[in-house]
């Protein structure tokens, strides 16, 4: 009930703030006219006093009376016009005041008809006290925050809310929560990894020194966890040590299970690091190691075919960026022939010859090599 009383008073005050200036215009016009007329009357009386005492002549007095009379007549005319104008505007002012009154009345009526004025309020304390299963994520976080304000040494609470903060992109609060959890509950690989991720997210994706230290602590606590290793390799790549980053990523692939969700990301990052290293150094891409070959032998036929497809596509992409690699073009042509993609092999041959130069010895060797593979229509 108090809410409706306050709302009504605020509505009345806002309406009066608009209505009162509209209703005062006519009184202001009339008041100004009466003041001018009173001044002219005083001037006539003063002329009469001066003439009776002989201070001015009768002719001068008559001229002064005539001039003041003309001013009074002019005032009457303009005053009448102003009054008429005010009367003409009375309808406009009336409509404006009616609109000011009608808008809140209509709003109240519509809300009463279509709104929910009888719905009880939902204070935050009551919402936090309801069943957690029916609470939103914001309400659950608010509940946890209220609990931690009352119990700042509850390490379990900090441990629970820290990754939630990270998913909500509240990275500063996430880092604080992870630090509190580590301080109260002790070291663990997930806590140090989470702290590193929060610090990295706060730096816009850059693995800072503090984040790298957190990942190193996590990797030491749980060598089987791929996350800190991946981020440490990312740190090396960001520092420009692409060879070391590629080596760490390749070592990760040797230990990751085939069904690990990290494999695609590690493979993609390794390909990017290798390609960037080759672009900077101009070196040819290294072939598969013996470990790679053993790993490929353990794959199913379908998985092995997918692996080969990826390797060939990466080689093709690298040659588009660095076409002055005669040995690379031969490997690419042979790969497409083995995959029975004859048209792609012909296309790779044509691109290789054009890149190496039609009249060069390397182009002629590439053409002869393609002919040995059965591309009989290859032209020397």
TrEMBL record:
It is found in: Cell envelope. One of its GO terms (biological process) is cytochrome complex assembly. The keyword Cell membrane does not apply. Keywords: Cytochrome c-type biogenesis. InterPro entries: C-type_cytochrome_biogenesis (IPR051263), Cyt_c_biogenesis_CcmI (IPR017560), TPR-like_helical_dom_sf (IPR011990). Residues 271-293 are annotated as: Disordered. One of its GO terms (cellular component) is cell envelope. Gene3D superfamilies: Tetratricopeptide repeat domain. Residues 271-285 have a biased composition (Low complexity). NCBIfam families: cytochro_ccmI. This is C-type cytochrome biogenesis protein CcmI. It comes from Aquibium carbonis. The lineage of its organism: Bacteria, Pseudomonadati, Pseudomonadota, Alphaproteobacteria, Hyphomicrobiales.
